[in-house]
Amino acid sequence: MTVVLDGGLATELEARGHDLSDALWSARLLADDPDAIVAAHRAFFRAGAQVATTASYQASVAGFAEAGIARQEAVRLLQLSVELAREARVRGDELIAASIGPYGATLADGSEYRGRYGLRIGELVAFHRPRAEILAAAGPDLLACETVPDVDEAEAMLLAIEGLGVPAWLSYTITGESTRAGQPLTEAFAVARGNDQIVAVGVNCCDPRDVAAAAGIARAASGKPVIAYPNSGERWNGRRWTGTSRFAPEMVHDWLAAGAGYVGGCCRVGPEDIAALAAAVSGPGTESRPG
């Protein structure tokens, strides 16, 4: 069976007129306009998404502190991200994935597309663990360890979520058949092999043309179900997207043939794209429901 994910939450928020140019990105609206986040999640659910990824990708206690938000309020806002996604459910059985973005996302300078921050694995664990604990306590169905640029951070994330009692997926941002830091995907996906907490591995926020090959590698290297939710294929350049979208919903058939079982979109992929993807997935001979 195939599970349809949502698309770019920030993309939909911007399409609705919200300015997300500050360092907190979409997480700023957790404090300023939570109803807008509910509406954006609901738009994807109505388009056919079965999983919502929360507005916590770029959120952290440290990041909120830099914005003048005290720890107690930061904890509340992180947990609110899960509650808002849950509130947005349309059918009632949709799944909520609490987003844990990479360390580089909190720097708001594109570092998540490079990795190799000069931090040791233990330092990355110390960064990720508090946020993971806070999000897990809010009761999501899944943790989404996403847009991971290198193997060191993947290993740190797996350690940071260990023992929290919430299943998770691990997805890298890639270029071709390498992580953004240049490591072979075979090595990258192998870190999840034998880890029972990880229910899927794969890629996100990458060129959609790179998905099929990566999905095959992910399946072989990890022994896990595969998740794939690329961006539009446009390029991120100086805090803005340039180029032309290459996200074509019919490409999903190649992803499925390569082993993907969870499919959706990331940046610059809106509800209309997810609706088309969901229609492609649920065509003759396919089955689509959360598993």
From TrEMBL:
InterPro entries: BHMT-like, HCY_dom, HCY_dom_sf, Hcy_S-methyltransferase. Zn(2+) binds at C205, C266, C267. Gene3D superfamilies: Homocysteine-binding-like domain. One of its GO terms (molecular function) is methyltransferase activity. PANTHER family: HOMOCYSTEINE S-METHYLTRANSFERASE-LIKE ISOFORM 1, ZGC:172121. Keywords: Metal-binding, Methyltransferase, Transferase, Zinc. The lineage of its organism: Bacteria, Bacillati, Actinomycetota, Actinomycetes, Pseudonocardiales. It comes from Amycolatopsis viridis. It comes from the Bacteria. GO terms for biological process: methylation. SUPFAM superfamilies: Homocysteine S-methyltransferase. Residues 1-281 form the Hcy-binding domain. Its cofactor is Zn(2+). Its EC number is 2.1.1.10. Transmembrane segments: none annotated. This is Homocysteine S-methyltransferase.
